[in-house]
Write a structure and sequence with these properties.
The structure is a single chain. The chain has 15 helices and 31 strands. By secondary structure, the chain is an alpha+beta fold. It binds one RNA strand of 77 nucleotides through strand 8, strand 16, strand 21, strand 24 and helix 12.
Length: 612
RNA sequence: CGGGGCGUGGCGCAGCUUGGUAGCGCGGGUGCUUUGGGAGCACUAGGUCGCAGGUUCGAAUCCUGUCGCCCCGACCA
């Protein structure tokens, strides 16, 4: 390709719309253009990158038995009603774009494809003899994100590879899940990305085990907690840890302590010398479900701990999802809401776990009983300080039995960096940030049961299929690569996913010898299978160098002053190392380097096999 | 949705407080010079100041409404 024909439009200034470096660079270097919030055009340079990533993904997914398909994006609401996800995905803060057709039939624009694929599987799969089967597609997904962000990182329309596997039993599912784990590690390393696998929450997709693949980068939206020994890594929303020991409350009789104006843990501690770990704090929240009344929650946590709302949502779904359907939302209760329910004001700031259900009597649309949950750190306290539920006072030295409560110990707390690990107390969790580029799930039979995807097993009996699903954010991965590979001058694409591997810069387009040699090398390198770009524009050399750096082509060949004598200059974008060499030796020098670089990073895990 | 900010030639911005009919840099076009790290000079084209109302002799500027975008929080590949 010739740059003169590439519609290369680069920007000198950072566009005002971009915040993080990868987004700025993709815009400046002419890879993307914004069309609307969270909606981007993939320009020719980026499209080449996306195709290279897709090709790597295809090879690796095919290698573990995937069959490529293309599924519809326009999906009948009925499918989603059958899986029970229509409400959760469209109502409240649902993320599915949905619409009515001329007959008033409802449709969703596919944010994911479990429903469609499971329906197809139900139709096609009848016998264990057909199993296992794994289908995948590389497809545009639509999600009405609450807040689109950072260019391709969180778009409302984006490209995803999603694969779905079907099995006769759970062990077979586990095998494929493991295969995908390996395939994903190979994919990211072949793309030249440093990625880590972490334990994850399975969120709205559901299912049991799930693992995320994070590209490590400061701009990442996820917090990863990992042990330095490499044996444990998890997304913070899922991470478990050992909380520090509580400071025992000094012995003394039970008393009620006047604490006017001390409605925060901090205020209480600094006024009376308590340690936060001696206090049981109470959070009042309300959970909204698809069916039934809103459920007030009374959550007890040790004063020094933070609530992990993902863990809470999982507990709520497990407890109440059966009867009340999808959990739509959990939000803190504030005084205005209490008033709107027609209830007397609650003693916010002085709440204790013994707050009686009577305070909810007569609520307009709330259930009149609290769902009471306690984190283990709170439940395990022998004696503690808690709110007296009125009178601007706290109780000091109470026990759960004093309060007439027997809290069940749940894990509701957020693990924090610095916490000790469960698997080894000598290990301390360390935080880093990551961009989630892949997520693999063992779905189990959630969708197959809901959608009636059954097969006949070896014993001649019908049973639901076991399923797994496996996603990679292809367009997000492209931007994550930029986040990980750039410098002050622009992008630095890993060779394996670079839009072009090498750019030939004609230093002076008016020197016939330079043009002739460049044209000859351009032809030679194309013939040698190199993805080569020729900058034949009538620009000054400086402009071409700046653009070559900005768009991040990994190798640059300068045909300049030495052209008459048959020498050229080869420059590696990363690091900037230069070498002068005779043009005749170029292919022999470059091609072996490219062959090695096309394989991406070396894999850390030898067990996962070879990267190319 | 809550909080913060911004909409002015293609891009980045100034002008707005204190109303008087729009300016700078980059980019585009033409010509000459230059030619290994975003060249110089000259000429030139290009703007319903997001949109709609209002106040005023007069509105980019003041008021009201509205739309869009960006950032912080809930969502996820």
């Amino acid at each position: 390709m010739r740059v003169s024909r590439l519609l290369l439009v680069t920007l000198r200034d950072d566009p005002a719309e971009a915040e993080i470096i990868s987004h700025k660079l993709l815009l400046r270097a002419g890879f993307i253009r914004r069309v609307g919030s969270g909606i981007y055009a993939y320009l020719p340079l980026l499209w080449r990158v996306l195709q290279k990533i897709s090709a790597i993904v295809r090879e690796e997914v095919n290698a573990v038995g995937g069959l490529e398909t293309l599924l519809p994006q326009l999906q009948p609401a009925e499918l989603w009603e059958r899986s029970g996800r229509w409400a959760g995905y469209t109502a409240g803060e649902g993320i599915m774009f949905h619409l009515l057709d001329r007959q008033e039939r409802a449709f969703g624009l596919g944010p994911t494809h479990e429903e469609v694929i499971t329906t197809i599987a139900a139709d096609l799969l009848r016998s264990y003899r057909q199993l296992p089967v794994c289908l995948y597609q590389i497809q545009t997904k639509f999600r009405d994100e609450i807040r689109p962000r950072f260019g391709l990182m969180r778009g409302r329309e984006f490209i995803m590879k999603d694969a779905y596997s079907f099995h006769a039993d759970e062990e077979d599912l586990r095998r494929t899940y493991q295969d995908f784990d390996g395939a994903y590690r190979r994919i990211f390393s072949r793309c030249g990305l440093r990625a880590v696998a972490v334990e994850a929450d399975s969120g709205a997709i559901g299912g049991s085990a799930s693992q995320e693949f994070m590209v490590t980068a400061e701009a990442g939206e996820d917090l990863i907690l990992a042990s330095p020994d490499g044996r444990y890594a998890a997304n913070q929303e899922r991470a478990t840890s050992r909380a520090g020991a509580a400071v025992p409350l000094p012995a003394g009789p039970f008393r009620v302590l006047a604490t006017p104006g001390q409605s925060t843990i901090q205020g209480l501690c600094s006024a009376h010398g308590f340690d936060p770990s001696q206090i049981v704090k109470v959070l009042l929240l309300v959970a909204r479900f698809a069916d039934g009344p809103d459920q007030p929650l009374l959550i007890s946590l040790r004063g020094d701990q933070q609530l992990n709302d993902v863990k809470l949502a999982n507990v709520l779904t497990a407890r109440l999802g059966g009867e009340r359907g999808t959990l739509l939302e959990v939000e803190p209760i504030n005084p205005e809401q209490v008033q709107r329910q027609g209830l007397a004001p609650l003693p916010f700031g002085y709440l204790g776990p013994q707050l009686e259900d009577a305070v909810l009597a007569g609520a307009r649309d709330w259930s009149t009983h609290f769902l009471r949950l306690a984190d283990a750190t709170a439940a395990e306290l022998e004696r503690f300080v808690c709110g007296a539920n009125g009178g601007e006072a706290h109780r000091v030295g109470v026990s759960w039995s004093d309060l007439g409560l027997k809290p069940e110990a749940l894990d509701l707390r957020a693990a924090q960096p610095g916490d000790r690990c469960l698997h080894d107390v000598s290990q301390v969790l360390v935080a880093s940030r990551g961009i989630e580029v892949g997520h693999i799930f063992q779905l189990g039979r959630k969708y197959s049961e809901a959608l009636g995807a059954r097969f006949t097993n070896e014993a001649g009996q019908e049973e639901a299929l076991w399923m797994g699903c496996y996603g990679i954010g292809v367009s997000r991965l492209a931007q994550a690569a930029v986040e990980q590979h750039h410098d002050a001058n622009g992008l630095i694409w890993p060779v394996a996913i670079a839009p072009f591997e090498l750019i030939i810069v004609i230093a002076n387009g008016q020197e016939a010898a330079q043009v002739a040699l460049a044209e000859q090398l351009y032809g030679d390198l194309q013939a040698a299978g190199v993805d080569v770009l020729l900058d034949d524009r009538s620009e000054r050399a400086g402009v071409k160098f700046k653009d070559a750096d900005l768009i991040g082509i990994p190798w640059r060949l300068v045909v300049g002053r030495g052209a008459a004598g048959g020498t050229v200059e080869l420059v590696e974008r990363a690091g900037g190392a230069k070498q002068e060499l005779p043009a005749a030796e170029l292919a022999a020098t470059l091609v072996p380097l490219l062959l090695a670089q096309r394989r991406g990073l070396a894999l850390d895990l030898p067990a996962q096999g070879e990267g190319a």
